[in-house]
Amino acid sequence: MKYFVFCAANIPENQAAIANALKAVEILRWEWSMNATVTGIYEGSVINVNPNDGNNTSVCVEDDSQIRLIQSCMAFAREMTELKYKNNAKAGTE
Asked: Is 23 helix (H, G, I), strand (E, B) or coil?
């Protein structure tokens, strides 16, 4: 199964959101890889980034397990929300 969790046009107004999405992917891949090193089980789905999806940047989550797919999508949403609030706090625009 495949689920798109992010898509934004590659325009200047969306660069912060795109940067957050790419950072969220990086954080999740690192977290799941590190957990797998400790537990021997990779708990996340496959996350694919397409930086030129019809002049958009898109992020897609794929998995055969529906439960793991949902958990991975929720983890991506959580990371995006945390990054948004951290960036807004730094900019003083909470």
From this structure: helix
User: How far is 77 from 5, CA to CA, in rounded Å?
Assistant: 8
Q: Please check the confidence at residue 92 and state whether its pLDDT lies above 80.
A: no
Q: Specify the amino acid at residue 18.
A: I
Kindly report the three-state secondary structure assignment for every residue of the chain. Answer: CEEEEEEEECCHHHHHHHHHHHHHHHHHHHHHHHHHHHHCCCCCCEEEEECCCCCEEEEEEECCCHHHHHHHHHHHHHHHHHHHHHHHHHHCCC
pTM (two decimals): 0.89
Tokens of 6: 């992010």
Domains in the chain with CATH codes: 2-91 (3.30.70)
Q: Which tens digits make up the pLDDT trace of 42-71?
A: 889 999 999 999 999 999 999 999 999 999
